[in-house]
Every structure is written in structure tokens, then in C-alpha cells.
Write a structure and sequence with these properties.
Structural class: alpha/beta
Number of strands: 11
Radius of gyration: 20 Å
Shape: globular
Strand content: 15-25%
Strand order of the largest sheet: 3-2-1-4-9-6-10
Distance between the termini: 58 Å
Length: 292
């Protein structure tokens, strides 16, 4: 078995159908599917059963844990594939996704591609894409510039996941456990391959997406930064801090806290990185002109 597709889910039976349809349509067929249910009370199990004649599919139900980390780990621990493919239960892939990725499996440990973004309310797939290439120094790039590896577009060798201790089940990292995972993986390999083609769809729903902006999200961003800051040189630390403060400024503006938004943006403008300084200045001016 080459690939194991891990799908954590919670009360998304109806949405899961489109995800599973995209797997049944894959042009490359050597893979299994593990649907890992975090305590759903809906028809998820019946949906999975309906695909048993189309897919090599298994279903694992457990009491609700509150996030995707534990279900993903249950999937990894029960998988048979050499490669783990992550896919969220409301996202889906193009039919040629696995076939496009196969050509890189001999030379890399992590393969990922960008995702096109669909607005769930309108069903419109816009021009926006998530995911971009990391620099050769993967660990530094991820710490300084943030997570650019979209979860539903990522494949990683199972042996690497075992080496880094699987996905963190620290509840303080819920919605950012994937970012933490790629940082841990970057400690043991630099063999990341980015495919700039949108081989899947990220389904955006501002009401249900657990990574939406909140005070809790901000706290998690700071937790990740503090966890890995000691791995940076002094100059890289200052650059990473400026990037973090820029993000916090924008987050607080979205939350309506203009005082903190301006404070973080002013601090970010002290960055020695000209591009970051310019971005912070632009948003500072924009927010200032739209204070009403």
C-alpha cells in the first residue's frame, strides 16, 4: 500500500460525500481511506458505509476529543501506507492529485501543493490560493514567515511522522497543530517539495472554520512562536517577531480592537526587513484612514 488518506471529521456527514467522491475519482488507485470520527452524532457512519464498494475505506469512531489532532493520530496508527495524505472532511481533491504527486516520492519526504479556495456560501471558487514554496532552510522559513503548507494538500512519509511523535495533542494548539507538525518535521528533514498547481479545493466557511480569527487563535500564534523562537538567530528572531506582530495587528483590527492593532503594526514597522516594514506601514495608514 503506497498511500493512506486520513480524514478527521465531526458531524459533517453531508459534506463528507463530496470529499469521498473526489477520492473515488482518483486516477491512481493504490491507496486506502481512513475516516476518523471525533464523536459525530449525525449520519457520518452511514455515509462511509455507502462508499465501501468504491474505496478501500475504514471507519474509526471515538468519543469527542475536540479537534482533529487525535483523530489524525488514530488514522496514522491504523494506516498501512508508506505515505500519509491529510485531507479535511470538507475539502476535496482533483482526480489527478495522487498521480501528480507520485513522481516526487523517491526524492522527497514531504510533498504538498496549493489549494484553490471555494466560498461555501456561494460555491464560487475564486482566484485566491493557499500554499506556497518554502525556502531551502525550511525550519527558519516556517518559523519566520508562518505556515505555508495547506493541510489538505500535504503528503508525508509515515516514518517521518513516527519519528517526530505524530501530531501534537496539546489542546492549546487546536487549529494550529498542522503548523506545529511541519515545524517538527522540518527538524528532521529539509526534503519538502511544493507543487504550485491547485490539485485540490479548500472549502472556506467563516462560521464553522476552527481557524477563524479570535483571541484564542491569537494566543495559539504566540504559543507556537514562543515554542520555537530559541531555534532562531538573533536577526531571524527579530524578523519573525516583526512578522508575528504584523499578523497580530491585522487580527486585532478584524476583532475591532484598533488600539492593539495600531500598537502591533507600529512595532512591526521597526523590522529590518524592508518588505515587512512596508506592508506594516501600508496597513497602518489604511486602518488610520478608515477609523470610522
Amino acid at each position: 500500500m503506497l498511500f493512506s488518506v486520513i480524514i478527521p471529521t465531526f458531524n459533517r456527514g453531508d459534506r463528507l460525500k463530496k470529499t469521498l467522491d473526489s477520492l473515488a475519482s482518483q486516477t491512481f488507485k493504490d491507496f486506502e481511506v481512513l475516516v476518523c470520527d471525533d464523536g459525530s452524532k449525525d449520519n457520518t457512519e452511514d455515509v462511509v458505509k455507502a462508499y465501501r464498494h468504491k474505496l478501500d475505506i475504514s471507519y474509526f469512531w471515538s468519543e469527542n476529543w475536540g479537534g482533529p489532532a487525535r483523530p489524525r493520530n488514530i488514522g496514522i496508527q491504523n494506516s498501512r501506507g508508506e505515505w500519509i495524505c491529510f485531507l479535511d472532511s470538507d475539502d476535496w481533491w482533483r482526480p489527478d492529485k495522487l498521480e501528480k504527486c507520485i513522481k516526487f516520492i523517491e526524492d522527497y519526504d514531504v510533498i504538498y501543493h496549493c489549494l484553490a479556495v471555494q466560498n461555501e456560501r456561494t460555491n464560487i471558487v475564486g482566484k485566491k490560493k493557499i500554499g506556497s514554496e518554502v525556502a531551502e532552510d525550511v525550519l527558519r522559513d516556517l518559523i519566520v514567515n508562518g505556515n505555508v503548507v495547506p493541510n489538505s494538500g500535504a503528503l508525508v512519509r509515515k516514518e517521518i511522522l513516527i519519528k517526530v511523535g505524530l501530531v501534537s495533542e496539546n489542546k492549546k494548539l487546536i487549529s494550529m497543530e498542522d503548523y506545529d507538525l511541519w515545524l517538527k518535521v522540518a527538524f528532521v528533514t529539509k526534503k519538502f517539495k511544493f507543487i504550485p498547481e491547485p490539485l485540490g479545493i479548500y472549502n472556506w466557511n467563516s462560521d464553522t472554520n476552527i481557524s477563524k480569527i479570535s483571541d484564542e487563535r491569537i494566543s495559539k500564534e504566540i504559543t507556537i512562536f514562543q515554542k520555537y523562537r530559541s531555534n532562531l538567530t538573533e536577526r531571524d528572531f527579530l524578523e519573525a517577531r516583526a512578522v508575528l506582530r504584523y499578523k497580530l495587528g491585522r487580527y486585532y483590527n478584524l476583532l475591532g480592537n484598533r488600539k492593539l492593532a495600531f500598537r502591533y503594526l507600529r512595532s512591526s514597522m521597526l523590522s529590518h526587513n524592508a518588505r515587512q516594514k512596508f506592508k506594516s506601514l501600508i496597513f497602518y495608514i489604511y486602518y488610520s484612514l478608515n477609523r470610522c
